[in-house]
């Protein structure tokens, strides 16, 4: 009930007097008790383990690499309110990339996707899922897009065009949708799809795709992939300026053609790691990942540290035993040049 009470207290959809009551009275008020028993909606919304009664009532997330193989995955179990909050938390911290923004006194990071659009898509999937089919909501994260799928069908006689346009609210699970609305998780009736489209448009992303060909709704949000181009352009500008000034004789025009493609291949957290990596100080893997506020877990190191090693920007001290507990990592000469250039972008753009 914590998520519901907190959300509802911040809206005007329930009065304070309606909230300062026992859980049982509140469930009665929300029409979630029938014949002295909890309804299915009540179990899904508030039970810590709804799968005990309704199988498939959870969310599955997977990250797919360039070969469309699952690199890592998670399952989020618990009440629907918990699933919403935990899914957003895991997506933003573990699955989604951030874009480096240069030009301010401090560099800032921005997720590839608008969080509000993702949140709306997840809430929409939960509110409209057909729970009688016992399959989880599925979220697939790729390098350049994210897909959110829930089983269910369009209301009778609706076309996809009507679904994407202005339409009356007709949720598949009215009781669930009503509670989410009263808790402020749903902005207004029938506006979920328009919110997703609007948020993507604000961020300059391609129009989201909505597909009903798989026995349910697949929402696909794509990246615009502009960051790599901007960064590549910034590298060229910084390199050309450094060359003209002769401020670092060790950097030559050969680096222009060498470093820009590397920047395109690396994720932004890897670039942040290079910028933060100290010169000449060997670090343990745990300390390396701390530089970008990540845990020392395999999926983090393989995604952000290993590519830097493959590009020759960071080197392992104990090459004969890469998995040694005494292993340390150090910035290479090539990595030092790359770091110098990345830092120069910040200075030249500010």
Automatic annotation (TrEMBL):
Residues 280-332 form the Filamentation induced by cAMP protein Fic-like C-terminal domain. It comes from Pseudarcicella hirudinis. The lineage of its organism: Bacteria, Pseudomonadati, Bacteroidota, Cytophagia, Cytophagales. Keywords: ATP-binding, Helicase, Hydrolase, Nucleotide-binding. One of its GO terms (molecular function) is helicase activity. It comes from the Bacteria. InterPro entries: Fic-like_C, RecG_C_sf. This is Putative ATP-dependent DNA helicase recG C-terminal. Gene3D superfamilies: 3.30.565.60. Transmembrane segments: none annotated. PANTHER family: GLPR-RELATED TRANSCRIPTIONAL REPRESSOR, SCHLAFEN ALBA-2 DOMAIN-CONTAINING PROTEIN. Coiled coil: none annotated.
